[in-house]
Here is the input.
Amino acid sequence: MLFAHNWEVAVLCGIVGMIADSVKTQDVVEALKKLEYRGYDSSGIAFVENGRLRVFKSVGKIERLEKTLGDELRKEIKVGIAHTRWATHGAPNDINAHPHTDCTGNIAVVHNGIIENFRELRSYLISLGHKFKSETDTEVIAHLIEEMYDGDLLQAVLKAVSKLDGAYAIGVVHSEHPDEIVAARKGSPLVIGIAKGIGIIASDVTPLLKYTKEVIFLEDGDVALIKKGRVKVFDSSGKEIERKVHTIDWDESAAEKGGYKHFMIKEIMEEPQTLVNAMMGRIKAGDILFPELASIDFSKARRINVVACGTSYHAALFFKYFVEFHTDLDVLVEVSSEFRYRKPHIDKDTITLAISQSGETADTLESIRLAKRLGSRIISITNVVGSTITRESDLSIMMNSGPEIGVAATKTYVAQLAILALMGLKIVKDRGFWSERHSKIADTMLRLPELFSTILSEKDHILEIAKKYESYSHFMYIGRGYGYPTALEGALKLKEISYIHAEGYPAGELKHGPIALLDEKFPVFAILPSDSLYQKMKSNVMECKARNAKIVAVATSGNVEIKELADEIIYVPRVPEDIYPLVMAPVIQLFAYYVADLKGLDPDKPRNLAKSVTVE
Ligand code: M6R
Here is the structure.
């Protein structure tokens, strides 16, 4: 197991399965629609009709699948599984959409998660004669089950999942077993509804609520046999086990948000899983793995040019600090809207890195087009497979965060920082600068999901602080070194969702002008970890204090002396100083979220802003 805990793979795709004496295809599709917020680049359904497996798929939103199904929607079926996808392996298209089938066309599988060892399994299965149709990791599961099947679907699934590394929640149907669905889970969520006369499974409780409030949450390693109105759960050895039945009291809207008030807070709370998804398979046996970048030789690169906007730009600044601190490589960072109209000095020895959550930001897209014309190779980091930026890049790295619905970037910022830190470590290694310090950073990266859970468990403390500060009209965020990008991001988060005027400044710049703003009505949010610039930062905070500004400090746990200086303190765990921006991220996000919510604003839909900025 890569990570110390059994973290779930956060929202990446949604699956449902239904079994009854008779349901309509439309019922399965309606259930699937309740999961569309989990992914919407393509969808599909498989059902058994007269002993034959039938599969329909469509790229785009579920309404496109409905059009493809046409009259089939009214069909009475006994068993069906369906999937709405957020691509991780293979572009969003009809072939890569789920369900995936085996060579015989009798077995169909829907899957949420990431199979880490799919390349090895695929080669092995091909050597046995299996023919693959898609580029997905999921298809190996269908062929593995085919390989293990000798008339008993449950046993075949038990054997197949024992070969999988990574994360999965799966639903499986077989044309010879129209009276059962087999489901399995490891690391990705899967819930089974307990209802009379109907069996239903889904990635979360939302589709189940129409049928029942009684549910079983499968646990890692569980394999379940679902028949109409009857559920049996087995452990990985095939021994039948009991699982607690929970009663859900959420309505559908709350269920979609995992019981949270807004998507933004749900997405912040998902960050431990976001980190797992972003880093999965990248730190192994002391090495840093980026198979996507096999053709890039960082040891020969002359410089890296990074283009990005907004939050992604702040992640880019972190990368610059990291790489320049640890290696001899120059990293240029510029907001895309400036870069695209300048005459940048880049050429074929410059690697251009585009960072964009959406993969559609117009200015970033134009910037990579310019960089390409100048001879630069383009690497992109995005969260959307098949987005325009990935299509126009030479190489792409996926963040695997699942859809982010809140307009403010939160979990995707964390994914960007994690990937950039690992990419930074890879550059350190490739250029021969690796030392004990870097092993320590890599080790701590593996512990980040756990550290994030600890930070997030302090959210009520941050809420209490937000209550004291929500009525202020201004905020100054300050930081030094690695704390500076965090200060910029903290100010952006606060202003975009709470409409409070917030400035992000390098603390050392205060005395060159902005300190004139400070007084008792202009509080300061100080990024103050116990790092090599701590004493300098402390002096800056003292200067602010001397102007009667209230101080909210984010400090390293164990720092007692700061109590004398700060009005409020939020502690984060001690980590190597190069990755403090990661552990600071949930703090600045939670503070902004609570302030906006307390002001009665909708943080998911801030005024004047769009999730994808596809215009200049
Ligand atoms: O999709 P991108 O990462 O390219 O988006 C860049 C910015 O538009 C985005 O980060 C924006 O600043 C967000 N509202 C930040 O929360």
